[in-house]
Amino acid sequence: MTSSGVFVSWTDHGRSRDIARAVGLDNIVPVSKKSNLALKYAQLSWRSWKALRARRPDVVFFMQPPAPLLLVARLYASTRRGVVLYGDLHSGFFNDSKWSWFTKLGLRLLRRHHVIVTNDALADVVGERVRFVHVLHDVLDASDAAEAIDVTRDYVLCPLSYAADEPIDELLQAARSTPEVVWKLTGRAPQSVRDAAPENVEFTGFVSQEEYESLLGNASAALALTSRADTMQRAGYEALSANTPLVASRQQVLVDFFGSAAVFTDHDAAALSAAVRSAISDTELRSRMAELLLKRMAEQSAVLENITTLVKTGR
Question: Can you give the pTM of this predicted structure?
Answer without folding.
Answer: 0.88
